[in-house]
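Follow-up to my post from last week.
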Amino acid sequence: MSKPAVTGAQTGLAYGVLGGLLLLVLFPFYWMIVTSFKNEDQMRSLVSMFWPRPAVLENYVQLLTKTDFAVWFGNSAFVAVSSTLVATAIGTLGAYALARLRFLGRAFMSSAVLITYLVPPSILFIPLYAQIRTFGLADSLAGLIAAYPSFTVPFVTWLLMGYFESIPVELEEAAMIDGATRFGAFRRVILPLAAPGVLAASLYAFTQAWNEFLYALVFITNVKLRTLPVGLSSFITGDVYGWGFLMAGAVLTTLPVIGVYIYLQKYMVEGLTAGSVKG
Amino acid sequence: MSIARPLPAKTTLDVRPSARAWRLARVLGADWRLGFLFVLPIVTLVLALVAYPFGYAVYLSMTRKFVGMPPVFVGFENYVRLAHDGFFQRAVGNSAIFTFGSVAVKLVLGMAMALVLTSPIRFRSVFTGILLVPWVAPTVVTALNFLWIYDGSLGVLNYLLVKVFRVMPQGVGWLSEPGTAMASVVFVNIWRGFPFFGISFLAGMKAIPADLYEAAAVDGASVLQRFHHVTLPGLRNILIIVVLLSTIWTFNDFAIVYILTKGGPGGATMVLPVFTYEMAFGAQRLGDAIAVALYMLPPLALVIILLARYMRRGSAR
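User reply:
Got it. Predicted complex:
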């Protein structure tokens, strides 16, 4: 009685639509994985299209031994982790201040952060490139680590502002009545409570940095300094390697974000997504 | 003087700093010290990485600048020339088709996803998790996957349509023929983006009180009427925010188009971000490239300001 009446036909329809959506979403991943285990002969002859026969590991072996893939993987990890640490530190402090502290210009700063988050890279990439060159950081991983906070920091800040706002003010006030300073209350009461949110926001920032393509494409010219997305996409123009090879690289590039995602899923579904686009 | 009146002098000394602090606090806000300290890094970052480069870009767009040469000031020349440039006009049109076509379908698919995930089905959270995966997978990986799926000779899409379902006599060069290229890249953008619509709508639907549905059901409202009069009004704000956000992101999608077609064939999928990139790093005309980017700004600024207003209202609760 408490739920609106749902007929069998509606449930059937729901399952039908769900099946369609699942097929749509899963097929490209299935295809990517299957292809990565096929050898070149099988691919060319169009036999046993939907299952690798024989299933081979040579794509992965070649990828890791004969190309710079491992180097690129390291570059991506280094850039993503470093820029995430920077973004998390800056964003957490800023978000706390913007959510809780009373000071001149707070409302303006909140708007500025949001607008910065919304300004897209396709407008920013040329001026930012010029700026990175002025700093002498062109064609270096440091340049990417410096540039990525331009999108990760506003994002982390905006997410965490909502998170800090949801922690009751009374907790902080109680700590301050007990003699803690404002900073002490932040460090010993609020920060531990916000830790799950901070972790989630930083993992989000990590995936954004890991997936970033445009800046990495523009800023880096040295092949050894490429990040994974740019390195991987350079295989298509290379014409040296086959599709099995490329898909093996795609699988390995996807794995870290999927790992992060499995951890993050409960936040994405329940909390932070709703927090970031509260209605 | 201070010796003659020791007591009042001492009192003023005690009071003066705190009065000053009080006045400062009244102007700068009660927590101004910690507040300024905490936002200083963000301010520095926004100024150095966004505001200043942006201002410099406006200047560069009014110059004739080739890579490695000093800029020459030319006023609005780049803008005027671009307005008459056929390639630029075509890119504007393509961007509009790409953006609105993609956002419209994402809206429909996202709504379907949310409705399915709020109906009484088994393993709901598992399916929610799976349907979100395109949204978290690296865009470059997605683009490469579809590049392979669309492949004219060995791609699985042609194989399915020709050999398995036999609905076509022969394969199509999905990305190499002007007639299908745009729809093919739009599809990839839809595939990647619709889960964001779905998950946001899902969160919004969960926030709609169940008694509203009950009341509507008691009043004899059909499923469609409940959707129209309860779900849609309840989702209004989220709907607006998600559509605006996605409009910005879609309009600025670079990786998918760049990897799949580089704007080809013959400019059929040339959207503004790729056009900007080609202008800057292909033709090496930085001033023109930035002018292209800045042409995108007024419509984007409109969307951004509108969106910021909705999002701030939402967060203020």
